[in-house]
Amino acid sequence: MSDDLAGKRRAYMATIRSLYRKERALGFLASLAGVLLLIWGREVPGAPAWATPTGLLVIGAGWLLFAYVIVRRTRYVRTHPFDPQS
């Protein structure tokens, strides 16, 4: 593989990795916050009753964001395949 082709492939991969970065970070932070809520609700005596179900909902929302990003990035790759001639 020539250096020019390898450079184009690296640029294409960098573009794909940079897609929806904010949404991925938000999904990660939502999952982390949900886990912390879940631990707090189950392990700390005197924690409110709403903490555990809310933690599960926040974890689910984080994972839904991850699934959204996967679908959107797959759509992008299918509509913009790697073309070494471009």
Shape: elongated
Q: Count all strands and give the number.
A: 0
Q: What low-confidence regions span 5 or more consecutive residues with pLDDT below 50?
A: none
Separation, N- and C-terminal Cα atoms: 16 Å
Mean pLDDT: 92
- The H-and-E topology, N to C, reads as HHH
Classify the helix fraction into a percent range: over 70%
Q: How many domains make up the coordinates?
A: 1
How would you characterize the largest beta sheet?
A: none
The helix tally amounts to: 3
Summarize this structure as a short list of keywords or feature phrases:
86 residues; mainly alpha; 79% helix; elongated
Summarize the structure.
Keywords: Membrane, Transmembrane, Transmembrane helix. The chain is mostly helical and 86 residues long. The chain has one domain (2-79).
Describe what you observe in this structure.
- It is a single chain.
- Helix content is 79%, strand content 0%.
- It is mainly α.
- The protein has one domain (2-79).
- Helix 2 runs antiparallel to helix 3.
- It is elongated and about 65 Å long.
SSE layout:
Layout: H1 3-18, H2 21-43, H3 51-79
